[in-house]
Amino acid sequence: EHGADAVALEKEHEDADAALAALRRKERELVAAFEDKTDTLRGERNRAGPPGDAEVARFRVKLSAEGIAHHTLAEVVEVTDPAWQAALEAILRPYRHLILLEREADRHVAWALGERERFRHFIVPERETAPPPRPMSLAEVVEFSAPIPRWLADLLNRIRRVENADAARELPREQEWITRDGYHRERRGARHLGRPQEFHFGELARQSRMAALQDEIAGLDKHLQALRPKLDAASARLTTLRQRLLGLQSAQLLAARSEAYASAEAELPAARKALTEAIAERAETRGELDRLAERLNGIQIELDRRSRELKAIDLRLAEIAREHGPRRRAQAERILKLRRRRRGMPSHWLNAGELTLLADKYGDARGARLQLERLRRHLAEGDWITDPAVLVVRDRLAAEVALRERDYLNRQGYCTTARLHTDNARAAYIAKLRATVRQYAKNLKALGELANVSVDCPTPHLENDDLSLAQAGLEVRFDFDRKGAVGLNDGEASGGQQVMKSLILLIGLLMDESRPGGFVFIDEPFAHLDVANIDRVGTFLRATRAQYLITTPVTHNANVFAPAQLTLVTRKKQPGSDWAPPIGVLQRAIE
């Protein structure tokens, strides 16, 4: 009976122990969650920026490793009206992780990296300073600390803020609008975009996340406060049951648990071995924990130092913002004033080329003002013609100049046409001249073959320019008896060779395709020639197909008459005679 009571009491003790262990485990989980949320809250207080995203964080690390400077859209957006935070978050939800590149030249490297990593968010290289917001637009409740994409500014300027859907009745049909609660009307229709559970943009988003963390920490603290009384009660009950178990008789307890003790004794060696292994593993784990704790301590020290540096930087940035805020506003006002003045200026005043000329001429605005003042003083103090008739003369002269310019342009057109025709005619003449020279060279070579003389006449270089034509000329060389080529004015040529050169050059001019010979008048070609050269010239004259009228004295060798088909013999009138002797005629058949 006592053994049965002991077993039941031990069972109750085990249940109480298990319940206490479950309560302690739950307490540890709540404490861990409490500490985690507390650390997160501490990090949010020390950090200014959007909540992290694992994929975006990894991709930004890779961009930084490539040396690509960048920002996310959430880092440059600040909401100035908290009432419209939800509406702005709803509109910008698809772009909350948009990457803005500092240098447009890095775009191809960044895009290639995004393709390789399959990055799902936009990477935008083209940015510009946000234009002034339109009144009552969603852009009016946003400030940008850096240049943004133009399409984003257009998107926010296009959406008008309204209190509710009824307030949009008077707006144009094509006007986009959104309410504070996120009800959005666009060209496709109207719908509710949903209220984001977590804000990403601006200081209000950070404050919202901090408030949510504080609420979660308060809830965990309430759970811990409610759990601790239960934990104390379970611990007290377990202590009571343990004391009751110790009060039972040992013999009865041993008898009731004999089988369990025997089983435990059999398992004791294995348990001791497991205990030894567990102790060794615990020692190793404790050493690793000590090393990790030491590393964490170093990391925490570095983190504290970085946090202090960041706080100092934030304070310095805030101080700079306070110092430069008035100057930035004044500069913005000056820029707006200059833009308004530029809108009323003629377009040529803003031409970059003319501005450069003015800068070269006057140096700067001060120099231009001094020149303007000098001209005004000169106009005021100078002696000028004030007769209105001068304007009439000016207009008449201007009209005459315009007429002369039109006449000049017309004549310039005529001159251009005449120049074109002249160039074409000159080109045609040069082409004809080039063909004539080639034909003449061909004729010279043909006549040289008849006279057994080698004739070389290279074609001159003829181009359509004055210098080429002025330098062009024929250079004919003759090779008699294979003793070397001689030119036209070579003094070493014999009389017969000179006659042959002259005949070849002269007859070649008269030859063409339709008339291979021509008619030639030659005065005493056999003068001063010996018999051999007379025969050579005669042979050449017979070989050509030209007609010749040749004069020669009768005192020459009779061979001069050999090539003639018709010979006319004349004599002078004798003194005392009325008439000259009759002309003698000798006709010879030429085979």
CATH architecture annotation name of the largest domain: 3-Layer(aba) Sandwich
Describe the strand arrangement of the main beta sheet, using strand numbers. Answer: 6-7-8-9
**Coarse shape:** elongated
Note the beta-strand portion: 5-15%
Low-confidence stretches: none
Query: How much helical structure, as a percent, in the residues?
Result: 55-70%
Query: What is the residue-mean pLDDT, rounded to a whole number?
Result: 81
Number of beta-strand segments: 16
What's the topology here?
Elements: H1 2-46, H2 54-65, E1 70-72, H3 73-76, E2 77-79, H4 85-92, E3 99-101, H5 107-117, E4 123-124, E5 142-144, H6 150-158, E6 159-161, E7 176-178, E8 183-186, E9 189-192, H7 202-247, H8 250-256, H9 258-343, H10 352-362, H11 365-381, H12 389-450, E10 454-456, H13 466-471, E11 477-479, E12 485-486, H14 495-510, E13 519-523, H15 531-543, E14 547-551, E15 566-569, E16 584-587
Parallel strand pairs: 3-4, 6-7, 13-14
Antiparallel strand pairs: 1-3, 2-5, 7-8, 8-9, 10-11, 11-12, 15-16
Helix pairs in contact: 1-7, 1-8, 12-14, 14-15
Q: Would you kindly provide a brief summary of this structure?
A:
This protein is α+β, with helices and mostly antiparallel strands and 591 residues long. Helices cover 60% and strands 9% of the residues.
Description:
The protein folds into four domains: 1-49 and 203-256, Helix Hairpins, CATH 1.10.287; 51-200, Taq DNA Polymerase, Chain T, domain 4 (Up-down Bundle); 352-381; 430-587, 3-Layer(aba) Sandwich (Rossmann fold), CATH 3.40.50. The protein has 591 residues and is an alpha+beta fold. Helix 1 (2-46) packs across helix 8 and helix 12 crosses helix 14 (495-510). It has helices spanning 2-46, 54-65, 73-76, 85-92, 107-117, 150-158, 202-247, 250-256, 258-343, 352-362, 365-381, 389-450, 466-471, 495-510, 531-543, and strands at residues 70-72, 77-79, 99-101, 123-124, 142-144, 159-161, 176-178, 183-186, 189-192, 454-456, 477-479, 485-486, 519-523, 547-551, 566-569, 584-587. The chain has a four-stranded mixed sheet. The protein has a three-stranded mixed sheet with strand order 1-3-4. A three-stranded antiparallel sheet has the order 10-11-12. The longest helix is centred in the middle third of the chain and has 86 residues, at 258-343. The relative contact order is 0.05.
